[in-house]
């Protein structure tokens, strides 16, 4: 599913395309596009279905905590959803000292940051260690130039959200993450960190959980059975890695050079990535991908 020739006017994102259905609903088409370095790298068979159906699983599991935007799932690649105005904040919940992006807790910690999004971090922490204070909410702004970590107090002070709206979303994010960790643990996985988005229903005014939930793209999962052993040995936690395709492009060219045409990804790597997405779906949901 490429997202081409949908036959309707669509707003195209990196992975998802949005089609207006009527005044209150939209269709979200999760494509097989694999993005990286702000470019399309490949089309990965079944990836869109994996992401869409994984989200559907988690939206169903968490709807008693907070309502979500789901109206129907008419096709593995398609979600019909309520039309919402998203809040300009990503609600990132973390349980471990890890990450590699500029906004990640580990990258900031290595640069000397000891107050991260309003949370005091002790000295002497090591990469991939479980956070001693438990799960923490570490929001980031959604800005055109670059996202930045921000505290709850700053969100209110800078008028990104009202206190009441923040309280609803923050409480829901922490509860949804805790339930996600519980179910993941029962399935042999550690839900390490994730991001949530919330929006206000344009018709009812309700705050809803939107976008995606606990997918392999929005979340980090480690294998629980080998975590302690590998950490004790100074090794990285075991995961079902999806980064190898990005690494291949780095080895072949400068993928950030937009003047340079990207080479075609080898078919065997693309199919291996597809297999790993399907494996993650089956581990997360305990359902057969069919």
TrEMBL record:
GO terms for biological process: 'de novo' IMP biosynthetic process. Keywords: ATP-binding, Ligase, Nucleotide-binding, Purine biosynthesis. It holds the Pfam family SAICAR_synt. One of its GO terms (molecular function) is ATP binding. It is an enzyme of class 6 (ligase). It comes from the Eukaryota. One of its GO terms (cellular component) is cytoplasm. The keyword Ligase applies. Pathway: Purine metabolism; IMP biosynthesis via de novo pathway; 5-amino-1-(5-phospho-D-ribosyl)imidazole-4-carboxamide from 5-amino-1-(5-phospho-D-ribosyl)imidazole-4-carboxylate: step 1/2. InterPro entries: SAICAR_synt/ADE2_N, SAICAR_synthetase_CS. The keyword Magnesium does not apply. Its EC number is 6.3.2.6. Residues 11-260 form the SAICAR synthetase/ADE2 N-terminal domain. Gene3D superfamilies: ATP-grasp fold, B domain (3.30.470.20), Phosphorylase Kinase, domain 1 (3.30.200.20). PANTHER family: PHOSPHORIBOSYLAMINOIMIDAZOLE-SUCCINOCARBOXAMIDE SYNTHASE. NCBIfam families: PRK12607.1 (NF009251). Belongs to the SAICAR synthetase family. This is phosphoribosylaminoimidazolesuccinocarboxamide synthase. It comes from Fragilariopsis cylindrus CCMP1102.
């Amino acid at each position: 599913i490429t997202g081409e020739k949908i036959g309707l006017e669509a707003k195209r994102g990196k992975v998802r395309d949005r089609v207006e259905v009527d005044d209150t609903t939209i269709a979200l088409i999760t494509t097989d596009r694999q993005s990286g370095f702000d470019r399309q790298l490949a089309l990965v068979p079944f990836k869109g279905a994996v992401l869409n159906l994984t989200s559907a699983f988690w939206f169903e599991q968490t709807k008693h905590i907070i309502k979500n935007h789901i109206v129907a799932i008419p096709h593995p690649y398609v979600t019909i959803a309520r039309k919402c105005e998203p809040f300009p904040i990503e609600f990132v919940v973390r349980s471990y000292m890890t990450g590699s992006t500029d906004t990640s807790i580990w990258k900031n910690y290595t640069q000397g940051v000891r107050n991260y999004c309003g949370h005091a971090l002790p000295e002497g922490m090591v990469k991939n260690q479980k956070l001693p204070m438990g799960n923490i909410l570490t929001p980031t702004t959604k800005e055109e130039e670059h996202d930045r970590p921000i505290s709850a107090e700053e969100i209110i002070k800078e008028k990104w959200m009202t206190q009441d709206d923040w309280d609803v979303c923050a409480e829901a994010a922490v509860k949804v993450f805790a339930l996600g960790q519980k179910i993941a643990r029962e399935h042999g996985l550690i839900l390490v960190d994730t991001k949530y988005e919330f929006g206000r229903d344009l018709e009812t005014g309700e705050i809803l959980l939107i976008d995606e939930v606990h997918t392999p793209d929005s979340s980090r999962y480690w294998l629980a059975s080998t975590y302690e052993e590998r950490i004790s040995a100074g090794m990285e936690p075991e995961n079902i890695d999806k980064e190898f395709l990005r690494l291949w492009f780095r080895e072949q060219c400068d993928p950030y050079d937009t003047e340079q045409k990207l080479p075609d990804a080898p078919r065997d790597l693309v199919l291996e990535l597809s297999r790993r997405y399907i494996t993650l779906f089956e581990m997360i949901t305990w359902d057969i991908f069919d």
